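Q: Could you fold this chain for me?
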Amino acid sequence: MIKEKRKAKKYTQEKMSQLLGISLRQYVRIDNEEDLPRRDVLKNLIVELDLTNEEIGRYIRKMTRSA
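A: Sure. Below is the predicted structure, expressed as structure tokens.
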């Protein structure tokens, strides 16, 4: 879901990592839904990608189930 939202905004992974203030490697793991980001990064991700409460809830549930 994160990757699709990013692509819809026509942002590259590099651009997102810069916007979020994290390394490209960290962002790639978030984009591929391999890691749940820290709270501060998650807040910025919500803002940058215009995530709804429903979308972020689904994302967090999915990520915590796979942990």
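A (continued): The longest helix spans residues 53-65.
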